[in-house]
Predict the 3D structure of the following.
Amino acid sequence: MIELPKGDGLSGYELLAVQLEALLAEERDLIANAAQFAAFLYHEIADLNWAGFYLARDEELLLGPFQGKLACVRIPFGRGVCGTAAARRETQRVDDVHAFPGHIACDSASRSELVIPLVKDGRLIGVLDLDSPRPARFGAEDQAGLEHLAAIFLRLTDC
């Protein structure tokens, strides 16, 4: 695992964007690209204990490709951080998941979370969920960088 580079040249998330474009360039399948993207994030971003997808099915999220410990399989829209992101279609950046109303503790080691809704052509595809054992792991720069990576994923994937 690498720390994101700082200094001259491409910034950390700019470099990850170039790498993700190359990683997904030859494939358009949702499951294949989600699996590759989850593994990529899990191994390239420091201080994660879970990275993956929940896919929209009716009015709930169903576990998709991920890296990390076992996870909750189904999450209703509006419940927990992931369900809230899906229902509101807004990124949820939570510094302390234990203080989040209705938090679902799939892994008690998780302390902070970033969940990005994946919307393509006006349709909710699912959410990208990143968990960290470190409180307040995700800042505004992480949110912007990861939202950009999620946009690349959506552009290069048939869903």
Strands lie at 50-57, 60-68, 74-76, 92-94, 112-120, 123-132. The chain has one domain: 12-155.
